[in-house]
Amino acid sequence: MLKLSRYVLYDILRSRVIITYTLFLFIVSMSLFQLEENDSKAILSLLNIVLIVVPLIGMIFTTIHYYNSYEFIELMLSQPLSRTRILMSEYGGVALSLLSAFFIGVGVPVLLFAFDETGLALLFTGGALTLVFTSIAFLASVKARDKARGIGAALLLWFYFALIFDGLVLLILFAFSDYPMEKFTLVLSALNPIDLGRIFIMLKMDISALMGYTGALYKDFFGSNTGILFTGGIMLLWIVLPLWWALKVFRRKDL
Amino acid sequence: MIRIENLSKRFKKLQALDDINAFFSTGQVVSLIGPNGSGKTTLIKSILGMVKADSGIIYVDGKKINGDPSYRGRIGYMPQIGRYPDNMRVGQLFRMLKNIRKVPDAALDTDLLVKFNLASIFDKPMRTLSGGTRQKVSAALAFYFNPEILILDEPTAGLDPLSSEILKEKIMQEKRKNKLILITSHILSDLDELTTHVMYLQEGKMIFLKDIETLRKETGQEKLGKAIAHVMKGGKKEALWIDEVLALKETDKND
């Protein structure tokens, strides 16, 4: 497995996209910490960037990489290697490079300037989101027949998770505003890893005090160990399930 | 060595393989012949596990090919169109596959590597190679690991006459080592001196599989090309197997 991933990693490093991505994250994080006087304000701005940029770049990069390494995959298929191993090596290589880009680009500045619970929560969320969206992108590219469809599907999924889902939640909350919805929204948040990550970090910040009763309820839940386990567990499901589905499709695919 | 039972594969509207039954054993050089789109490449890819058949079973050395991929370690495959990772250098490609197959240096067959003088282009990236040079790389790779089974899909297409001769000479040499060799080609004169058996496919159906001597006797033609042309025109009705061919064609028309 690692042997194959090494070749995948080598190929990724050659294209320099990952290095640009790392630099971009690093420059943005550093300048936010330099510009804002209050470090927790900087974390808040950084949070918004992490929640939008990390899933987007993760998905686009993964899909493009998948289609670019189609020849490699084809070549490997005629060798004595199982399909599971081939796809997992691809996943390993892509996930590892995206994760290192994130931990160098955002992790180093955060550890330097805001090494506290909120900072660590941000790093945890960013790392988890990277893996989640790499998994989802693998599923989209394995299922789609050609490059255009694959990238299109990845973009649509990103739109859904980053923008459309929030609108739907608002709509639901508005329509049922007469009922107590606190517990229900908790369940809703589990359906979108980006939302889950946002709530998880927000409640570690001071501003959560301004969020009224719901905020208090959430803080009670997410602040406890159960909350951390819940977030971790749901994130893990979001990583494993799409990848497992992608593997299932890939194993039956004609290449 | 390879046994195929009731193999069928359908791509949307196209019946690529229709109930194929065949048996190939060591020491045979089997030519897969048939018009374009008759299912030759699909058959080859099914044996390699790259195409998943709808029904039917393939055994390699008595073992079903589903599941354990290790059987592919005994097969050398030369694809019709060799597609390789663009950025990889020729030398890296050979090193990588050596690494994956874990074959000791002493067991490697570098004959074609030397004869095609590929060492001189070891540091060239794959994307800069011409079609013919790619074919040479594909051929050298197929023979590199000294496999017991060789599957060559249009091996001489795109090669210059000199290289084509070298490759044919190499195939003869391997034939003498009692290996099983499957070849598809449209250049029947190339196959003439090599082949021991002919498998004729048409629209996914196997029309016949017989050894070359019988074929020559039945058609009264010495040259393979002429014999096949004979079959395709449906001449010489007294030969039993040609009657079968015609019967098949007629039932097709009645449908």
Overall description:
The complex is a heterodimer of chains A (255) and B (255). Chain A has helices spanning 2-15, 17-35, 39-68, 70-77, 83-113, 117-143, 147-175, 182-190, 193-202, 212-223, 225-252. Chain A is mainly alpha-helical and 255 residues long. The longest helix of chain A is centred in the middle third of the chain and has 31 residues, at 83-113. The two termini of chain A are 21 Å apart. The model of chain A has no long low-confidence stretch (mean pLDDT 89). Chain B has a 6-stranded mixed beta sheet with strand order 6-7-8-3-9-10, with helices on both faces. At the A-B interface, helix 1 and helix 4 of A face helix 2 of B.
Task: State the main characteristics.
heterodimer, A: 255 residues, mainly alpha, B: 255 residues, alpha/beta, Rossmann fold, 37% helix
